[in-house]
Design brief:
128 residues; mainly alpha; Helix Hairpins; 4 helices; GTP-binding; Tubulin/FtsZ 2-layer sandwich domain-containing protein
Length: 128
């Protein structure tokens, strides 16, 4: 797969795809001979995260749908929880983008340790 360039693999990790075969369930009627399920973990998910952040920013700039949350005790003072969640998603997206580079294994170790900790962890009051 790597040689034929059917999928783009990171250079610092193994180029392997795991396949598990199993019998069909006797409790479910199948209309086809072959059924499948794919679970994937890859760096392209950062595009989805970026799209979610962009949509959140649009809603937040217009204060759309926020009045219902402000009526709740948790959000009566501020909507910082939403902004914190946005930071977490941005830092997760940044880490997935960094995972595409060859020096990702050193990503958390290079230079100042604090500079490479996602901003969500640095500002998270729940983290020790």
């Amino acid at each position: 797969i790597r040689e034929r360039k059917l999928a783009k693999f990171i250079r610092w990790g193994p180029a392997s795809i795991q396949v598990a075969l199993s019998r069909q369930s006797p409790y479910i009627t199948h209309t086809h001979k072959v059924n499948g399920l794919m679970l994937a973990n890859h760096t392209s998910i950062c595009q989805l995260f970026d799209r979610c952040v962009k949509q959140y920013d649009k809603l937040r700039s217009r204060n759309a749908f926020l009045e219902n949350y402000r009526q709740e005790a948790m959000f009566s003072d501020s909507l910082d929880e939403f902004d914190h969640a946005r930071e977490v998603v941005v830092s997760l997206s940044d880490e997935y983008k960094a995972a595409e580079s060859e020096d990702y294994i050193k990503w958390g170790l290079m230079g100042d340790q604090e500079a490479h900790i996602p901003s969500s962890h640095a500002s998270d009051r729940r983290m020790p």
